[in-house]
Amino acid sequence: MKRRDFLRSSTLASGAFLIPAFLKPFETMAMSAVSGYKNLVIIQLSGGNDGLNTVVPFGDDIYYQKRKTVAITPNEVIKLNDIQGLNPNLSALKEIYDQGWMNIINSVGYPNPDRSHFRSMDIWQTASNSNEFLSTGWIGRYLDSNCQTCQNPYTAIEVDDTLSLAMKGSKMKGIAVQDPNKLYQTTREPFFKDLMHGPDNNHLHEDNLGYLYKTMIETYSSADYIQKTSKTYNVVAPYPATGFGNQLKNVSKFINSGLNTRIYYVSLGGFDTHVGQQNQQGRQLKTYADAVAAFVKDLKQTGKLDDTLIMTFSEFGRRVEQNASNGTDHGTANNVLLFGGKLGKAGIYNNAPDLANLENGDLKYQIDFRDIYATLLKKWLNVNDGSILNAQFTGLDFV
């Protein structure tokens, strides 16, 4: 089969072969150069993490009235003040909190919340209204808006095998890189190289084939750049031997090698805790906390923590009252956790969730998540947040 026929039959028909676009690195870029700008790391907790059992309102009696068997007892809570404290499985984060490198924002959500995992995650990833359906993500639109005029390749990497909607713009996309060596080897397969350098490449510029060919060229070039740059640095700090720990270890490698990337995106699943919540959530929270603590300490040691901001979110929280299966069902507002060496406001950002003032048994949101995005875009990435979010948001003062 000719390359042209292969592309027509398999790629455009099914979309299975499409590789996310990535900014083509400049050939003159010095591989050993340090980035010299701020990094943003997004951590997605998939499944709807229970925020009330993550940052525990142990000082509120209603919490224990509503959660007879799944509540974290006061003697287990890692107390941060007289009202709230951390789940004991987050013990690794206490030192980070005490150093002033952690910020907790309570009651984050959006108007007219949706309790579907898929729809609510789309809303968070696209920064849309709950009745609005967008095909581009907020990070993808950031890439679109900046790469029209920028002189340097502002890029985004998702440390995974697939690309989230958050990373997809209309013109630019991030790239999914779980293993830079694997990506490099894939793009050096004979069939891939033939597509890049074959004699009939001119046929690939027809219609959508031109876009595909450009995407493959950019991916081919990017794989080479990522692999060559990242291998110049070896992470020496200890990380937990978990998949999530390895994701953050890779991000450390990328940042410390001077990879010219602004945004990194990682995910940890397993938070849909309808049944037997305490053990299941506890395991996932420990996996999360141990890896994040290692990552923050690593960046501090290498001098990169001041230039890095880490944000953790989940698509929604859980209902205030537990269910009959020692779990919790899909809810609404949740907490967002931030980490960094230059937080403008460390500690607990706002008041604890109001458990006495619920809406159909759910928390009422106090802070729109897009105010957090607006802050990240405007104050951290130094871009026009309104044009990316398609609306104006006040923003916050955590940086």
Characterization of this structure:
- It is built from twelve helices and twelve strands.
- It has 399 residues and is of the alpha/beta class.
- α6 (180-187) packs across α8.
- It comes from Mucilaginibacter aquatilis.
- InterPro entries: Alkaline_phosphatase_core_sf (IPR017850), DUF1501 (IPR010869).
Please report the distance between the alpha carbons of the first and last residues.
55 Å
- Number of E-type strands: 12
Class inferred from helices and paired strands: alpha/beta
- How many structural domains in the coordinates? 1
- Low-confidence residue ranges: 1-35, 147-154
Q: What is the annotated CATH architecture?
A: 3-Layer(aba) Sandwich
Query: Outline, from the CA principal axes?
Result: globular
Q: Portion of residues in helices?
A: 25-40%
Organism: Mucilaginibacter aquatilis
Pfam family, one: DUF1501
Protein name: DUF1501 domain-containing protein
